[in-house]
Amino acid sequence: MADSFSLPLRPLTEKPDRPDTLPIEIAQINARWGSFRDVNEETLLAKIEEDKNRDPWEEEDEDDKPAEDVDSTERLETLYKRRAEILQFAMQAHMEALFALDFVSLLLSKHTPRQAETSMSTFLKQVAPLGSLNAEIVEPPPKSEAAVQDVKTVSRGWRAQNFNAAANKLLNSATRLEEEVASETKYWDEVLAVKEKGWKVCRLPRERTALGVQYGFLEATPIFRDRGLAALRRADNGSLILDKGLAPQKTRTVRVRVKNRDQITGCSKMPDPIPDAASVERRILQARDTVYEEELFHELMREARIMGSHGVTTRQNLVRVPISEEQEILLDLVDADREMPDEDKIESTEHDILANGLSHSIRILLAYAHRQNLRRRTQPPPPLSQKRRHTPEYQLLRPVMAYLQHSSHVRWLESFMNDIYRVLRAAGVERDFHAVPFASVSLPKVQAVPKVESLVQQFLMPFESTFSGHLITPQSSFRVKIRTNPVSPPFGTHYDISIDLPHHPEVQPPGRIGLQNEAAAALMHFVKLDIVSAIALQGSKTAKNTTKKEGVEGDRQLTWEAAYPHHGELLALSNAGRSKKLKISLSREELKVETFPLRGLEGFGRSGATKAPSLQSQTWTSDQAASKPGLMEFVAEVSREQS
Amino acid sequence: MHELLLFASVPAHQHHELLQQLAGLTAMQPRHRLERRLVFKAYRKPGLTTTRVGASQDLQGVELQRLNKMLNGGMFYTQVVGPVANADFGGNPSSSGDPDVSMSGLEEKPSSSSSSYSYEDQPWKLEFRDIPEAGTRSAVTARLMASATLPKGDITAPMNAWGYSFVTEYVVEGDVFVLNDIVIFLHRVLLYPTGTQESHGPRRQLPAYQELSPLERTGSYVLQAAITVQDGGNQEMMRTASQHLFGLREQLKSAVRLEMADRLSLDTRAK
């Protein structure tokens, strides 16, 4: 093989046949130092010492030193003199050069008269005719054998020296090339490895000779899209360096924290900072993640600015989103490896899951926005006009906020309804309600858009939950729709209550209720109204029954009539003139029924003094332990009572 | 609206490669497009007099004047474009499509047809293109354009009512790319098989796709880069649009040569 065959580049160094002969050395010493008699150790040492001390520039300075002593006029004189000298020398040199030119021109004029004539001086042209000088090669006298030998030796030495130098240079460049090849190979191997991982490797647009890798997102906002390109540079040893230019090298990430009652109770998971010795692949990933996170935060900021009406506030590097009275979400962009300052100390990890969920959601929503951008970009564009197309803010915070808001409202209503129904159950009324939280979220079966997109789309639409149930009287029912609209006005959560009260067909709830208190009050009112009608109904039924049965006179039932149903008041008028009033009050904790005796209709006026003795009341609370007679039994009881 | 155009001819063998290049350039997958194109010719209805000849002092907008001219003045060929799908081709031609029925929607759907193509549900769009502007200094084709959505189904009756008669039809097949404001359409014209020529109206059934033959025998494609400009009177917008087109021309320089079309070959005037 070729590589087994090595050709020496250096000339063979042959030992000189013999060292310089003594006579030659003696001759050299004589030439330099003169006679041997004058050379002794002292003079030599002195000479060496002198050489050592002497400044290399001393000779030139020597002449200047005395010049400092003379006064200025003399200095000027010497200056002029020197100048004149210099001029003189220059003139002389010029003259000599001209003479030489004339000489050469005259010499050449024999062979090329036309050309030579141009460089001849006029004086020469007048004096000497052209071509009057000729040159011939003269056979030199034969050199002595020794001289020839000397020249030969010297030239051989020169040649050997040159060969040596050339060989050195060649070998050096060979080594350098070898290193270069090794490092290039390493570089390209790593570039290939990057490419094989599926990254897009391309030429940098600005710097046509460098390679770059694209890791950014094509659909991102232009500033972030353009940042998704980094140069792949070669270090001296050939390893790959990811050169992101001026962009910071640190890993940055959007941190989501949950603040509950001024305490931070949850924080999203942070990525691990990358070690210094991370692979290029890892670095590219990190760069990609960082650019994504920065875009995410940029878009969060952009969106937060238009959400001032929702109570979202922004600071330089912080977005604060209120969720409920006591909870808020903090979003900020932090370095992954930063130590947390003390004021940010995380008190508990109670809401870590929430924070993590939120951080995943906003990232998914940004990816969705990217897909939407692609969709928009590939549609035929509208005609070019002077109006610039505004890129709408992405929906990142709004769906998240709407979801949290909605679920908090749903939970509140559920607990409220639970309380009411527990009170009713305690009073012996077995009714139930049915809650469908997030009824609007359903996954479509067939879709034109890809599954992931339709999945996300569901969460960008208004949320709706429904509660429905029966009330005490048959046929009466209620239905509550909670709607939260994240995108278009009206923003916020609204309660849509519809009821079906056959006994009070004229009662209809207000159209759209925005406050929890109002919704609670309305619902409570309807339940109370229904209890009143239930009692009235019960009374009329039993009355019918008793008349059918021809009941005993003394045990006659009172018939309750809903006198002021909206106040929860019923009246029973007996033939005996002893009327009674029944008052129902309902709250989240308890249901209370009181009876007051009345003396005739005009008894209202002076009932204060007389009613006291036979006041009866019954209270059912949601957490009562002992079982009490039910509402209907109690009503039957008080209506039976006669005196 | 104005339309600025550049064209290039793409030989058949370069078609696939160019598709790849365009997909890379525009960072999107091609959107395949199949269109039926019906050519209608305007004719002057007897009894219809041209109004206001010579009343040039009217203070009318340029656009309105143009529109007037378009309606009353010169006669133009217009195209009615309907998007179709690949699956629409190859219907059973024996089905009873009565070409004389003028109202759309009244006809019974031919049940024997194996194809899903229903002429009655075919959406249409009217595309008017003026002859390209003459004497423009810039090296792009610029022309006035307008599009309008038409009723679905049989289109000959309304078109006749508007004074247009059916001339011929053909199919355009191609791929669309979008690069910022530029719509790049790499397409070719396909002709219906001769023989079963229905000269009196558009076809109700489409023949099998394989039976269509390219207008250009070599199967070469046309690359069309277009920008629409809302206001053709706005010089700055027009310049920006041409600049965009020139930018694309530079980018595609090594692949195809985009240039402006011969004005008279795009003449839509009916003589």
TrEMBL record, chain A:
Pfam families referenced in this protein's UniProt entry, alphabetically: Med17 (PF10156)
InterPro entries: Mediator_Med17
Cellular component terms (Gene Ontology): core mediator complex; mediator complex
Region feature (Disordered): 1-20, 50-72, 604-627
Record's keyword terms, sorted: Activator, Nucleus, Transcription, Transcription regulation
Compositionally biased spans, kind Acidic residues: 57-71
GO biological process: regulation of transcription by RNA polymerase II
Compositionally skewed regions (Polar residues) per UniProt: 613-625
Main subcellular location of this protein, as a coarse class: nucleus
Gene Ontology molecular function: any one: transcription coregulator activity
Compartment list: Nucleus
PANTHER family: MEDIATOR OF RNA POLYMERASE II TRANSCRIPTION SUBUNIT 17
Family according to the record: Belongs to the Mediator complex subunit 17 family.
Free-text function comment from the UniProt entry: Component of the Mediator complex, a coactivator involved in the regulated transcription of nearly all RNA polymerase II-dependent genes. Mediator functions as a bridge to convey information from gene-specific regulatory proteins to the basal RNA polymerase II transcription machinery. Mediator is recruited to promoters by direct interactions with regulatory proteins and serves as a scaffold for the assembly of a functional preinitiation complex with RNA polymerase II and the general transcription factors.
Protein name in UniProt: Mediator of RNA polymerase II transcription subunit 17
Organism: Aspergillus eucalypticola (strain CBS 122712 / IBT 29274)
From TrEMBL, chain B:
Keywords assigned by UniProt, alphabetized: Activator, Nucleus, Transcription, Transcription regulation
Pfam families with a match to the protein in the record: Med18
Single Gene Ontology MF annotation: transcription coregulator activity
InterPro entries, per database record: Mediator_Med18
One term under GO cellular component: core mediator complex
Keyword Transcription: yes
Region of interest (Disordered), residue spans: 88-119
Cellular localisation: Nucleus
Biological processes, Gene Ontology terms: regulation of transcription by RNA polymerase II; termination of RNA polymerase II transcription
Similarity section: Belongs to the Mediator complex subunit 18 family.
Function: Component of the Mediator complex, a coactivator involved in the regulated transcription of nearly all RNA polymerase II-dependent genes. Mediator functions as a bridge to convey information from gene-specific regulatory proteins to the basal RNA polymerase II transcription machinery. Mediator is recruited to promoters by direct interactions with regulatory proteins and serves as a scaffold for the assembly of a functional preinitiation complex with RNA polymerase II and the general transcription factors.
Protein's name according to its UniProt entry: Mediator of RNA polymerase II transcription subunit 18
